[in-house]
Amino acid sequence: MAQIGLVAHDDRKDDMAKWVKTHQDQLSQHDLFATGTTGSRIVSATGLSVTLLKSGPLGGDQQLGAMIAEGRLDVLIFLIDPLSAQPHDVDVKALTRLATLYDVLFACNKITADAVLNALKDNGGNGAHG
After folding, report:
1. Is 18 assigned to a binding site?
2. SS3 per-residue string spanning the chain
3. Any known ligand binding at 127?
4. What residues are labeled active site?
5. Per-residue pLDDT tens for 78-125?
């Protein structure tokens, strides 16, 4: 079982909810953590159990970053909107830097997220550290 962080920029939240719904059976076998608004949308669309953190701009991105730094997150799926400026861009950059620094499986679009889920399946459901 992997610990998976889920976050999406505002213009990608619908995409995240649809992606999670598509992969609901596999994701239900893992511990899911999500920033507040993204997580609420996922729960509403799927009924999955998701630990809700604060909204991204209110500290949720930093909570996920802390989980990465503490070795408590195996996977980060962050659907990024590359065409819109983000008011909390510095938090976003810090989160992606930590995911890279700590070798966490990291996806920033749906096709890479699919590949990450396949890697989890091939690894018996364990994250990169499992």
Report:
1. no
2. CCEEEEEECHHHHHHHHHHHHHCHHHHCCCEEEECHHHHHHHHHHHCCCEEECCCHHHCHHHHHHHHHHCCCCCEEEEECCCCCCCCCHHHHHHHHHHHHHCCCEEECCHHHHHHHHHHHHHCCCCCCCC
3. no
4. 61
5. 999 887 776 667 888 899 999 999 999 999 999 999 999 999 988 776
